[in-house]
Amino acid sequence: MKNNKYPNRREFLKTTGNVISGAVLFSSAPFVLRGGMSNRMPNVVFIITDQMRGDALSCLGSQNARTPNLDNMAEEGVIFENGFSNNPICVPSRISMFTGLYPNQHGALNNRGPLLNSLGNTLFHLLRKKGYRIGFIGKNHMIQPSLLKKSLDTCIIRGREPFRAYSEYVPPFWHCDTYWSSEKCYTALNTNDAVQFINNKNSDKPFFLGISYFDPHPPYMAPSEYTSRFSSKDMVLPEYIPASDLSTKLDEFFRAMKFDQINDSDLIETFRYYYASISYIDDMVGRVIDVLKRKGILDNTIVIFTSDHGDFMGEHRMVRKGMCHYDALLHVPNIWYAPGFIENRFRVKNLAQSVDFLPTIADFLGVNLSGSLPGRSLKPFLQGDKRLNEEHSLFAAGMFGEIFSYLLGEGKMPENHKDIPLHTRVLRNLHNGLGKKTAMIRTIKWKFIKTEGYPDELYKMDGGWIERENLARKPEYANLISSLKRKIEQIWTM
After folding, report:
1. Does one domain contain both 427 and 352?
2. Banded pLDDT at 102 (limits 50, 70, 90)
3. Would you place residue 438 in the very low, low, confident or very high pLDDT band (cuts 50, 70, 90)?
4. 469 and 325 both lie in a single domain
5. Which residue segment(s) compose the domain that 468 sits in?
6. Are residues 382 and 255 in the same domain?
7. How much of the chain exceeds pLDDT 70, in percent?
8. What is the pLDDT of residues 330-384, one digit of tens each?
9. Position 2 in a domain
10. Bridge partners, 37 (sequence order)
């Protein structure tokens, strides 16, 4: 059955490009600012972290996080408490942010890609048509680097520091202080370049600035200036729910990564470094906000903060990520801070997803993309709509390869695997393989996961962010499961 609900990448390039171009040329909708009307286009600062859980914020009740600058953004702006990614790993989720398409539509279903080789179906195309000065700094993982560098006004790509290397002896939970001072790490260098980009604004031309941080992605490292602020005795581990209680697939990942060998001390120390690196990011975000204030342009700037995906970080006594549609990996921060555009300061419980970023930014630019993309504009919620739609659903999709059988205790390890770190042996095929499909539908109350080769999963979420019991085998939920399966089939045939 062909999916006719949303366009695939080729169809999107044909149709949506025309929608965007036409809308940009003829739309002149003004923005409503506190104190009056303005025809100015807003500056946009889009801050993306890598592998930051959605609940890793003090303002959402984390007992481990220290995020005063992000908390202030959430308090004075709007935070979507239920922000989610459309894929649990880097490449697909980042492409979804900038195209507004689900992974099955843009074609990158795991970290194998492919990366985009055109800007014609991206946020950058829309911004260029609107006359924006465009900068992007930090981790890319979505567009061919040579294309990005030649197409933007400023493009400085940095992945991770050269010292973040692995050896065969490194365990999956490896953590340590950085070898460089905080001023020399890429997180600070990216921020320095961002500040310089903002300070170079010498005209009325609006700008878009993407700042993409590698942290808190593993290996879990942070400068000693930050790790020293966190004490192991203060770290709080989550409630333990065995992976085997949820699904065979998650249990296979748990066993292959040997997470059963992580003791409390290892796990607590990993927490310490993870949250220290988030504190480092929080300070850098504070620097960006400060320069916008000093420059006198904060009232005409929309600052967005999010992450590409999350991290297990203790859930089921696991760390890192995997091709698994659990909230630990899909729930991400989603904060909008714009003093000149957002008067109502509150928290939104309605679901938001990465494919919503493009239509929302377009809406603030006066461009209507409704109907041409699967996501929706979040602008009504940003402007005070507090009605909760419990039936609205979000979607995630991906593909994965088999875990090598020897990692599950069957057969011998190949000779050419012996010098490779354990997590690389597990994740390389799992993240890059094209063997099986996996998809998820989630509402505020329910989550359904369908994975080729594995039993279905159904969880009652009730607004929370942790899966506790797989209800899929209980007969009383058969009708609900059939309904949620149909929703997946309408978007992606599995």
Report:
1. no
2. very high
3. very high
4. no
5. 395-491
6. yes
7. 92
8. 999 999 999 999 877 889 999 999 999 999 999 999 998 877 899 999 999 999 9
9. no
10. 32
| pTM over 0.90, yes/no | yes
pLDDT in tens, 205-234: 999 999 999 999 999 999 999 999 999 999
**75 and 205 both lie in a single domain:** yes
Q: Indicate whether 413 and 373 sit together in one domain.
A: no
Residue 380's Cβ-count burial label (10 Å; 0-12, 13-18, 19+) is middle
Considering the domain architecture, whether residues 241 and 278 belong to the same structural domain is answered as yes
pLDDT of residue 266: 94
Strand-pair partners of 135:
154, 209
Average pLDDT over all residues of the chain = 91
Number of domains making up the chain: 2
Q: Are residues 183 and 279 in the same domain?
A: yes
Q: Which residue has the higher pLDDT, 111 or 27?
A: 111
